[in-house]
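User: Here's a chain of 601 residues. Predict its fold as tokens.
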Amino acid sequence: MELFLHYSLIPSLFIILVLSFLQRREHRKQRDDTSHLLGNRFGIIIPLDFVGTFSNRWSYGIAFGATANKVMFLFSEGYQPLHIPQWAQAFVLLIGGMEVGLSHFPFFACLSSEFRLVSSILGFSYSLIWFAVTILYIIQCPHGQFLGKYETVMFYWPSLLCLAFLLGRFLHMFVKSLRVHLGWELQMEEKPFLEVHQAEHVKRLLRKAPLQETKKSWFQTRVYEWDPCFQFPSRMIGTTVLAFICLYLFIVIEFCMFMYVRDELDVFEGELENYIASMNQTGTLTPVILQVKELMNVSKGVWLVTILPASLTCVSYLFHILACYRKHMKRLWAGNKHFLPLKFHHPSSSKSVVAIARYSGWQIAYILWGYLIIHVVQSLCGLMIMYSLVLPVVHNQGLEMLQGLGIGTLTISIVLGLMSLQVWIATSFFLQPKMSTADKQKPLALNNRKAFHNFNYFLFFYNVLLGLGACLSRLLISCILGTWLIARIDRTIMQNGYEGADMGFSAWIGMLYVDHYHTNPVLVSFCNILITGHRERRLQQAIKYWCLNQSAGPRVSARSRTRWLLLQTLVNNPKLVMLRKSRPGHSSREFTQILLMGSES
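Assistant: Prediction complete.
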């Protein structure tokens, strides 16, 4: 498959040249004879619009899914075509990423091309080549070293499914474009500048009376509520689909490594048993060896059991990130930036442009590394539970375990009780009464100051010891939350004031700002009004003389039309009368009265 990746660049470049030849350049600059010979051919083609594409989203997402195996190949740093020094490894990975992108470029270019008939034929042929080669590879090497039978099928069935979907999609495009070419169907309209959901969002904002809320289901109330006035761009759908498939492949790879390590541990455990048998269980290392065997058995079981909760956690993060994207975008549309740290209220434009290019790749990498870290943390928690609760019962030490658990619980309860007692004493004796019965709490005004100073003095030495436990608990909670949220790129794990050091969160904020500036429904609607008005004016200028020749009715002067529109504006907005510039010799109110009298006449 790696060899075919290199050879696939030949048909990929051919398809790119064909689509580029069909694509015409709108602004042609003739600089030399060569460019004059090319004419306006060989325009720049794009795989997809990463900012404003809302149509054909799932096709782009499935096309991203077809690249999952190659992305995991790059992620494992298996791309080594040349033997180079370690310091140049970044350049090799860059070349590998460019090669993978170029080999899969025809999928996206054929989906987004305006020449549907040609692009559907080329896309179908290229997808069929990849599908056939993948099937041939699975047939030749169906089994593997770690999982045994059908190991290759487990790795490649997501890519096969995505390629099969692309085959069906290109076939549908071909049939539809052929019917249009033969005149059996009408040509599809040009892609609208203003999407339907954006127009509905603006209508919702301009609606005076809010719509009556219907009764929401449990899923809408607790999990997710569908919004017909919002759509995720193709970039978010493609990132999510690719992240799901890469997470599945990463889990399969991890399970293969677990099977390999388990087999090695079984061999090591057999050697330990042979040593114990040779010593007739009387050696000095026998208790240690038994504990090591128990640790290996417990670790294997805990690691296997925690695969499911770790994977479910990362899957829930992917859905939650989509929900957070919608929530953050709506807040930015409303002009609300309070949910962002203060230093991100005005981000750098250049960094934001780079951020939208980084986001998709970084999101996938964060999910994969986050899964591994979460799995390790959950396994450590499982080991703690096993050694503190389960194994003592297995070794008939349940009473000692319950005794130690009770003492620990009682100690923590007493410490927390003393902390709560301090708060109660401060509330009851050292604060002045409420100034009003409507107040929620007492004012921050000291009372019984002498008693307060004694209270503060004697608890000073105790709080020194209590602060040690508080410091350790702070460290423990920070480690747990940091590792648990490491896969969440939409939430920083840095403290206040150090958010800029979180590069993933910075990429998330930059991506939000780029989408906010380029897909804001209000801004897009305003630009659509300007474009539509410009087209209408050009159309009116084109048919101006025809209208003059055909019209036999009374003509209306431009001045009268302007004054009539001004009258309508002032009637609908009376407060604008006081803000108008006055005419020389008349006040604004007098001029408005003259205007009204003139319009009535």
